[in-house]
């Protein structure tokens, strides 16, 4: 009866999938290698399938294992959500809240906001996930997410923050060495920093901006943080958040009239968490802090509250 399979078997299965070996999974999970091996063997026996085959490079997942991965990760997410909920019981704001944001926002924008939040609520523990992958709030991969797109799921509540503007920037040292491009047609003569595999907003920009293609990029990195580091190092011209660049007097914005992308920014979470003290205060802190960062004149950060209903895009 496969419905009696314990979560620990799937946990070890995911560990081997991610690490590629029993020893790697054991280290990651804090268990012994024989225990990890017994768990995988027990899961294979219970399901009546082969999950891994041995090779010179380690354990290779079978097609069955790959098919099971998404389901096992959903179980992992639910288990983590249950643990966070269990540690959040009691009086006051306490327990774990998991916040997801893009690489740049999570690394460059949220740390001071989270610092203030923790100073006000020291019993609150914050897990910050910096990733450009959209975390699934319905599956509780995160409690709260900062997104650059309006949430569409009916089960989510959200607060619109405003637009985060992107523009071309370069370090003063780069401009001193190579000059300032006068228009977009000058970009091919410069070292332009961009993506190897462009995201959606870059593909959209390419439709309306001449010469803005993958071939334009002399320096390519799929990490936003790597691109930002290259801009700060004076390696070339790249796209970064205008608000972030304003913090560094060495960064100069280029061709603002010719190039500007605005990303609609939202703070969102599952509606089931609206009455959770830990999530409510974290939600409000993110709304207030990000509103200051974006500089949205319409946001009343002094009175930012949990939304009573789902916000409309025009709010």
Automatic annotation (TrEMBL):
This protein's record includes keyword Repressor: no
Database matches in InterPro entries: LysR-type_TF_proteobact-type (IPR058163), LysR_HTH_N (IPR000847), LysR_subst-bd (IPR005119), WH-like_DNA-bd_sf (IPR036388), WH_DNA-bd_sf (IPR036390)
Molecular function terms, GO-annotated: DNA-binding transcription factor activity; sequence-specific DNA binding
UniProt keyword list: DNA-binding, Transcription, Transcription regulation
Domain HTH lysR-type, first and last residues per copy: 11-62
GO BP term, pick one: DNA-templated transcription
Family: Belongs to the LysR transcriptional regulatory family.
PANTHER family in the cross-refs: HTH-TYPE TRANSCRIPTIONAL REGULATOR, TRANSCRIPTIONAL REGULATORY PROTEIN
Name of the molecule in the record: DNA-binding transcriptional LysR family regulator
Highest classification ranks of the organism: Bacteria, Pseudomonadati, Pseudomonadota, Betaproteobacteria, Burkholderiales
């Amino acid at each position: 009866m496969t419905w009696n399979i314990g979560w620990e078997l799937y946990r070890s299965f995911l560990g081997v999938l991610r690490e590629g070996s029993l020893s790697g999974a054991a280290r990651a999970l804090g268990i012994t290698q024989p225990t990890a091996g017994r768990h995988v063997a027990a899961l294979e026996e219970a399901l009546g399938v082969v999950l891994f085959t041995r090779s010179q490079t380690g354990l290779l997942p079978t097609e069955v294992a790959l098919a099971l991965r998404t389901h096992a990760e959903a179980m992992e997410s639910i288990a983590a959500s249950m643990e966070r909920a269990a540690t959040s019981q009691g009086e006051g704001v306490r327990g774990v809240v998991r916040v997801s944001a893009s690489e740049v926002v999570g690394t460059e924008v949220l740390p001071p906001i989270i610092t203030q939040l923790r100073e006000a609520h020291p019993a609150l523990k914050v897990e910050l996930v910096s990733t450009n992958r959209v975390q699934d709030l319905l599956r509780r991969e995160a409690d709260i997410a900062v997104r650059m797109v309006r949430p569409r799921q009916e089960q989510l509540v959200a607060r619109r923050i405003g637009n985060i503007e992107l523009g071309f920037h370069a370090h003063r040292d780069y401009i001193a060495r190579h000059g300032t491009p006068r228009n977009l047609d000058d970009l091919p003569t410069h070292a332009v920093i961009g993506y190897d595999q462009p995201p959606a907003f870059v593909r959209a920009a390419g439709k309306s901006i001449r010469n803005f293609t993958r071939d334009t990029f002399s320096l390519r990195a799929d990490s936003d943080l790597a691109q930002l580091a290259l801009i700060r190092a004076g390696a070339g011209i790249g796209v970064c958040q205008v608000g972030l660049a304003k913090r560094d007097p060495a960064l100069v914005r280029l061709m603002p009239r010719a190039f500007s992308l605005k990303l609609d920014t939202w703070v969102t979470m599952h509606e089931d968490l609206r009455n959770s003290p830990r999530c409510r205060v974290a939600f409000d802190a993110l709304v207030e802090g990000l509103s200051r960062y974006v500089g949205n004149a319409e946001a009343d950060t002094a009175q930012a509250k949990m939304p009573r209903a789902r916000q409309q895009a025009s709010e």
